[in-house]
Recover the amino acids of this structure.
């Protein structure tokens, strides 16, 4: 279980979010929505203990992620942010091999990992020569090299072609089923995740404005497209 409680998340004196009280279980697929600048990325970074000088409580499997205790769980995390980078001078496969070495992983099926993210044809291509979309998919593959039980993905579809999005989602779903993973994902691409999410959150005015199961959201709005039209308008 992941539990997040805090009265305020802030940068220096600027408050980004307030009154956060959330709990998620293993196996859930959490969709986090909100307009640009609403605090989606900030919430994820706070949750992972990446923001300095914060108060509150973040517990994953009973261990605080706001303390050095989190390093005991690092093998269970798969984390992606849009600013992540790989080694431009290495090929796709070399990047996977190097990052697997960094993480102490010795049983990675690199062929399967490249197939999972639709980059098999670029195995011997240096990262600097990839298109933006394929570069992003390589970063995703690196972020999810192991068998994470907590996947935190901030805008994983940004710059990725629409054909590849269902492939990535299918990979996430398979990993969730195999590992009982809890996944938190932010995106503005709502149509592709219609069949993927199990709970949806919407951030507005520095608060969690809505926190609904898929059944609850469907009852109130029908589809995510309807929700987007009504709430974002």
């Amino acid at each position: 279980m992941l539990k997040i409680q805090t009265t305020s998340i802030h940068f220096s004196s600027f408050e980004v979010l307030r009154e956060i009280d959330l709990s998620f279980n293993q196996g859930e697929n959490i969709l986090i929505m909100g307009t640009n600048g609403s605090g989606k990325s900030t919430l994820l970074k706070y949750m992972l203990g990446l923001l300095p000088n914060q108060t509150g409580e973040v517990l994953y499997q009973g261990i605080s992620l706001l303390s050095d205790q989190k390093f005991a769980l690092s093998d269970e995390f798969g984390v992606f942010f849009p600013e992540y980078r790989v080694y431009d001078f290495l090929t796709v496969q070399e990047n996977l091999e190097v990052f697997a070495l960094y993480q102490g992983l010795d049983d990675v099926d690199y062929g399967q990992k490249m197939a999972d993210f639709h980059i098999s044809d670029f195995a011997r291509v240096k990262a600097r020569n990839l298109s933006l979309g394929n570069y992003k998919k390589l970063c995703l593959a690196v972020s999810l090299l192991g068998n994470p039980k907590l996947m935190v993905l901030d805008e994983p579809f940004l710059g990725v072609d629409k054909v590849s999005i269902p492939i990535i989602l299918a990979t996430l779903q398979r990993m969730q089923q195999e590992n009982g993973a809890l996944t938190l994902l932010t995106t503005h691409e709502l149509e592709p995740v219609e069949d993927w999410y199990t709970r949806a959150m919407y951030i507005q005015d520095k608060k969690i404005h809505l926190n609904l199961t898929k059944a609850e959201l469907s009852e109130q709005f029908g589809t995510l497209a309807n929700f987007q039209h009504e709430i974002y308008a």
